[in-house]
Design a protein that fits this description.
Strand content: 5-15%
Structural class: alpha/beta
Number of strands: 9
Number of helices: 15
Distance between the termini: 46 Å
CATH class of the largest domain: Alpha Beta
Order of helices and strands: EEHHEHEHEHHEHHHHHHHEHEHE
Helix content: 25-40%
Largest sheet: 7 strands, mixed
Radius of gyration: 21 Å
Number of domains: 2
Bound molecules: S-adenosylmethionine
Length: about 350
Amino acid sequence: MRGVVFECASRTTCSLTTDDAGRDNSSAPLFVSSVDRLQMARDTFHVPVLEREVVSYLSASAGGVVIDATLGGGGHASALLRAVPDVRLLGLDRDPEAREASRQRLEPFGSRVRVIDATFADLRDVREREDDFIGAAPVRGVLMDLGVSSHQLDDGRRGFSLRVDAPLDMRMDPSTGLDAASVLARLDEEQLRTLLARHGEARFARAIAASIVSSRPRTTFELVAAVERAVPPAHRRRGHVATRTFQALRVLVNDEEFQLREGLAAALDVLDLDGVLVVIAYHSGEDRVVKDVLAEAASGGCRCPVELGCVCGAIHRVSVVKASAMMASAEEIASNPRSRSARLRVARKIVP
Ligand SMILES: C[S@@+](CC[C@H](N)C(=O)[O-])C[C@H]1O[C@@H](n2cnc3c(N)ncnc32)[C@H](O)[C@@H]1O
């Protein structure tokens, strides 16, 4: 555990910090740039989910700027730029391969696009830092299409997929932070149990934690084997037995809980009046955070009885566009199975 602190500030937020400013050079980054490979992968990098819906919610952005806070392969971004001729797009992604792929894909849109290296938790800084691009234009939309791209999952070197044997890395930005194997080497059994329980492994969290500690996996298949040893076949759910363990580890390695809360708050701040925040979540924990943050921004903390209307002076910053999350159609799920778990939520900023 030398130099690593695992903390749970609340029931929903755990984070991992190191005493060397979050950098661990003990394992070399796996990222190796290759323009040829990116060009080949351009069209298969990621199929955007709920593309029609996303573009339609952002279509009133003409004359303004939209921030795509999760560029991925630039699929949503290019669809928007095609649909709304005079919108400009500031795109960010923490993954260098995603930035490179989207730069290439969005090149035909010329000066209407800028691609930068940032995380969405940094959105407020980005607004200031990129002032020469945004200028006086209103920020009319922010898109957050959460989680990992198909490219990250499918790329054998990244360690995100339980179906491809690879070193356990899982960092979206491979140049910073601890990789997943280093995290597993440092967490003790109780810390692992807490992490797994938080991400839905209620029954077998203890057994999986013990199995991981006894083997300290360094590859994806070693981690799958550790989970399989802990969960008896008769008790395995639908889907792969190690799915939730992989997800929990990925969330911790990339500090996703912190990123999401900070990113949502910052997105609501940087939007101009009437701007829309569009968020797609891919697992229930993530969607719950999005739903709660938007509900809180809509109510401003007001608890006045509905019949009375709000008399407490709370500031209702946003209007939630639909109470329930929107999901992909059966047709979309059939053509893109990764859309099955997508939950889309939209809020409009109604107070400057
Ligand atoms: C589902 S993909 C987005 C796909 C994209 N909408 C498209 O159409 O190609 C999610 C992307 O968000 C990036 N990402 C995840 N968390 C991030 C964060 N906190 N800050 C910046 N980028 C992040 C990932 O690296 C990944 O490329």
